[in-house]
Design brief:
The chain is α+β, with helices and mostly antiparallel strands. The chain is built from two helices and four strands. Strands 1-2-4-3 form a four-stranded antiparallel sheet.
Length: about 120
């Protein structure tokens, strides 16, 4: 086998592994109302407290109810990972009556409660 063939086989192998990973990730996604939403939970100010956080939910137009639940899920994961509890005091959250949607995105804010 020449060096050129070895490099080609290596590239094909790397491509196959990468493709397999993306298929696995799609299969393991959590769907809300039949849709996958991109969410991001992050701390407001880690110098003050990691308990206060925001969650951004993208693609709200696909399903408002699904987006609400995706945001609840992301906030719950954040609190479990950082505090070991799923208790959240939502300032603006999935049960808020009037939610603002800007550019197909909404943002929740909450505080993780101590266990």
């Amino acid at each position: 086998m020449t060096r050129k063939h070895a490099i080609m086989l290596g590239l094909i192998g790397a491509l196959a592994v990468t493709a397999g990973c993306s298929i696995q990730r799609k299969k393991d996604r959590v769907l809300f109302d039949g849709h996958a939403f991109r969410t991001k939970a992050k701390v407001v100010d880690k110098k003050v407290s990691r308990a206060d956080f925001t969650v951004s939910i993208n693609g709200v137009s696909a399903s408002l109810d699904g987006a609400r639940e995706a945001g609840r899920y992301a906030g719950t994961r954040y609190c479990i990972e950082n505090y070991g509890t799923s208790k959240i005091d939502w300032k603006t959250g999935p049960d808020t009556e009037q939610l603002r949607v800007v550019d197909d995105k909404m943002t929740f804010a909450g505080t993780c409660q101590r266990p």
